[in-house]
Amino acid sequence: MVGGALQIAGLLLGGIGMIGTFAVTGMPQWRVSAFIENNIIVFETIWEGLWMHCIRQANIRMQCKIYDSVLALSPDLQASRGLMCAGSVLSFLAFVVAIIGMKCTRCVRSSWQTKGYIILTAGLLFILSGAVELIPVCWVANTIISDFYNPAVNVAQKRELGEALYLGWAAAFCLIAAGAIFCCFYGCCEKTRSYGYSAPTHYSTDSQHLHRKTESSYSKSQYV
């Protein structure tokens, strides 16, 4: 009962993290225009994402344009595009592997030990996907903060942290938490299995010793 609940909780967290990763990869709100000092044109907001940049005017009209070339992106956004795609693929693969390894799944004819290894693989993939997602999100956030406090950067070019970064941190946390749950579930199953195997062995050794002692006593009495 407890093991099934842990698996369901891990699968739900992994699914939320996977959907969040997909959303973060496609969202344009990675870098948002900052309204500071002389930049007080608040009716126009600029969003910069991995695939496009958008201009939103007075909460009424929004225009988006896909980047003409990858070279038009800053180095942090170029690397983030590849890392987020890798994180999306890993999170989807981990989710599929976790479904295959669930107790209630009977799509593969395998033993519980094999399913335990599948669950462990899913947990490691979830943790890996969360770590891969954290790298670009933290990198872009660090670049934004560094440029914001850099006096050499023009005020009009300074940006603030967008909603996609906060969602990325939350999605990465869900993925890592799901991976930790699956790995802990595998560890608990291994401890239970090893304890269950050790007890019968001890009993069987004692039984064999008792049997030999009885046979020996019977042989001596028969000899006399």
From TrEMBL:
Pfam families in the record, alphabetically? PMP22_Claudin
Q: How does it sit in the membrane?
A: Multi-pass membrane protein
Give a GO cellular-component term: plasma membrane
Q: A single Gene Ontology molecular function, please?
A: structural molecule activity
Chain ranges passing through the membrane: 81-105, 117-145, 165-188
Record flagged with keyword Transmembrane: yes
Q: Which InterPro entries does UniProt cross-reference here? A: Claudin (IPR006187), Claudin_CS (IPR017974), PMP22/EMP/MP20/Claudin (IPR004031)
**Where does the source fall among the domains of life?**
Eukaryota
The subcellular localization recorded is:
Cell junction, Tight junction; Cell membrane
What keywords would UniProt list here?
Cell junction, Cell membrane, Membrane, Tight junction, Transmembrane, Transmembrane helix
Q: What is the role of this chain?
A: Claudins function as major constituents of the tight junction complexes that regulate the permeability of epithelia.
Query: What family is reported?
Result: Belongs to the claudin family.
What's the name of the protein? Claudin
